């Protein structure tokens, strides 16, 4: 079963995360140094989030239809996008496996990956604050897999 039941739920979490990062006084300008417009196209549920990350301009994040014309397009399953923002996914590996597809200048795509890292903790904190423990299950599973088998419990997630 997918983590998000519909596009509106995905927008409420992933879309809002990108809006928060864009509006952040410290992180927003760093994101805009990528100097591109990136569009995330996800499946299951189908949704589109477009972020204007242009140096020297105000940030903009559109969920759904947009007049913005993306330079970079990333497409993947919504569950993969969710696990990425939990910090559990290597975009390089997923691109190589074909689970994530990218269109646009490689240099711009490569700039985006390290910019996302500060969003991981923010995303996790938001899910916890909103009582969405169900969306944190991939973290618990990853923690359990990586915990040493000495009868100790993995850290609480």
Could you characterize what this model shows?
This protein has six helices and five strands, in the order H-H-E-E-E-E-H-H-E-H-H. The protein is an alpha+beta fold. It has one domain: SCP2 sterol-binding domain (Nonspecific Lipid-transfer Protein, Chain A, 2-Layer Sandwich), CATH 3.30.1050.10. Strands 3-2-1-4-5 form a five-stranded mixed β-sheet. A hairpin with a 3-residue loop joins strand 1 and strand 2. The C terminus is likely disordered.
Summarize the structure.
With 157 residues, the protein is α+β, with helices and mostly antiparallel strands. It is built from six helices and five strands; from the N terminus they run H-H-E-E-E-E-H-H-E-H-H.
Low-confidence stretches: 150-157
Estimated radius of gyration? 16 Å
**What is the string of helix and strand elements?**
HHEEEEHHEHH
CATH superfamily: SCP2 sterol-binding domain
> Which range does the strand content fall in?
15-25%
Sheet bearing the most strands, described? 5 strands, mixed
In spatial order, strands of the major sheet run: 3-2-1-4-5
Number of strands: 5
Number of helices: 6
What is the correct CATH architecture? Answer: 2-Layer Sandwich
Q: Which overall shape is indicated by the principal axes computed on the Cα atoms?
A: globular
CATH fold assignment: Nonspecific Lipid-transfer Protein, Chain A
Distance between the termini: 21 Å
User: Quick one: CATH class?
Assistant: Alpha Beta
What number of structural domains do the residues give? 1
Structural class: alpha+beta
* Mean pLDDT rating: 90
**Helix coverage percent:** 40-55%
């Amino acid at each position: 079963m997918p983590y998000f039941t519909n596009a509106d739920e995905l927008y409420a979490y992933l879309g809002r995360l990108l809006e928060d990062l864009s509006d952040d006084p410290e992180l927003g300008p760093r994101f805009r140094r990528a100097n591109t417009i990136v569009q995330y196209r996800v499946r299951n549920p189908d949704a589109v989030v477009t972020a204007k990350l242009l140096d020297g301009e105000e940030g903009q994040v559109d969920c759904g239809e947009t007049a913005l014309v993306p330079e970079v397009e990333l497409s993947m399953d919504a569950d993969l996008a969710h696990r990425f923002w939990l910090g559990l996914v290597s975009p390089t590996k997923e691109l190589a496996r074909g689970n994530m597809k990218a269109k646009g200048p490689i240099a711009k795509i490569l700039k985006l990956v390290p910019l996302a890292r500060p969003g991981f903790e923010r995303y996790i904190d938001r899910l916890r604050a909103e009582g969405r423990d169900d969306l944190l299950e991939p973290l618990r599973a990853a923690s359990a897999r990586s915990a040493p088998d000495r009868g100790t419990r993995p850290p609480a997630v």
